[in-house]
Amino acid sequence: MTKDTCIICGVETPYTADTHIDIRIGYIEGAGQLCKNCYSVGTDRSHTAIPNYFFENTPNDMDLGAKVRHFYYEQKKPS
């Protein structure tokens, strides 16, 4: 069986079409398989952890977005 290719660069990956997605590395549901390099580059991001109470205590999505953005900028301020 032929190997899947990376959806970004076209390089052959170690996975075939019958390899279940739960055991693949670099598979993006709705898009397809990434090679090790494209997956590593694409996942090299910084993250911000948002407290659960933001979601639990804010029923309106617009208000939630404002809270998250405010929290993000508060975290970036120099101490």
SSE blueprint and pairings:
Blueprint (H helix, E strand, L loop, with lengths): L2 E3 L6 E5 L10 E2 L3 E2 L2 H7 L9 H5 L4 H16 L3
Antiparallel strand pairs: 1-2, 3-4
Quick rundown:
The chain is of the alpha+beta class. 35% of the residues lie in helices and 15% in strands. It has 3 helices and 4 strands.
Task: Give the biggest beta sheet.
Answer: 2 strands, antiparallel
Q: Over the alpha carbons, how many angstroms does the gyration radius reach?
A: 19 Å
**Fraction in beta strands:** 15-25%
Count of extended strands = 4
Q: What are the secondary-structure elements, in order, as H or E? A: EEEEHHH
Treating each run of at least 4 consecutive H or I residues as one helix, how many helices? 3
Stretches where pLDDT falls below 50 for ≥5 residues?
Answer: none
Q: Give the domain tally.
A: 2
> What structural class is derived from the secondary structure elements?
alpha+beta
What is the 3D shape? elongated
Overall pLDDT score: 89
Instruction: Tell me roughly what share of residues is in helical segments.
Output: 25-40%
- Measured between the Cα atoms of the first and last residue, the distance is 57 Å
